[in-house]
Amino acid sequence: MSQLHVIDHPMIQHKLTIMRDKNTPSSTFRELLYEISLIMGYEVTRDFPLEDVEIETPMEKTVQKRIAGKKVAIVPILRAGLGMVDGLRALIPVARIGHIGLYRDEVTHKPVPYYCKFPKGIENRMVIVTDPMLATGGSACDALDLIKEHGCKDIRLMCLVAAPEGIKAVQEKHPDVDIYVAAVDRCLNENCYIMPGLGDAGDRIFGTK
Fold first, then answer.
1. Sign of the dihedral defined by the CA atoms of residues 155, 100, 115, 142, in that order
2. Which one, 34, 64, 66, 127, has the greatest CB density within 10 A?
């Protein structure tokens, strides 16, 4: 079974509370999402392997640690997932970026794919999938299916806010994918929105409502 990692650092909780406030403007919402994504990235990459390397400081030669050749791809689920990319890229500048486009049918509430583009050799990289909201889990599961179809095996799902229903769906369909979230909220409402949630993340990031 995949591991659920709730990254409830005090600074994350503080920033997330501001994001939840309906009066928070899009510009502030985007800035806070960037900051939280950067902080969460430290935990997502905590188990990266290290190797010894000899360097010379201004004082002497010394053996220190560096990342041991871990290659990363960041794959946002469009469009809201884009809001988490820059924070991760600040932490991992050499990461390659892919994109998966899914939208939710307003009647069936099921995800419909419309775009998929991955960097060459993604199957040899650790893939971090980003989406601020893990609601029903439908979009996340479909995105993970597409990534696995390209041969990827080391995959992590990074979300801001999750509902128990979405976590359960991902863990059942993709038990090999660890989930990283900043908060687990109460439930989904009748329209499959997370409660208390923070509204439509895409609209709040891009100011489209």
1. positive
2. 127
Residue 85 DSSP code: H
Q: Amino acid identity of 87?
A: G
User: What's the whole-model pTM score?
Assistant: 0.91
Pair 168, 184: CB distance under 8 Å: no
Instruction: Say if residues 70 and 126 touch (Cβ distance below 8 Å).
Output: yes
CA distance 37 to 12: 9
DSSP letter at 98 equals -
Tens digits of per-residue pLDDT, 7-17? 999 999 999 99
- Beta strands (DSSP E) in 33-170 are 50-56, 61-67, 72-78, 96-97, 99-104, 111-117, 126-130, 133-134, 155-158, 161-162
CA dist., res. 21 & res. 162, Å (int): 17
Q: Which helix (H) or strand (E) holds 206?
A: helix 201-206
List active site positions: 104, 108, 200, 203
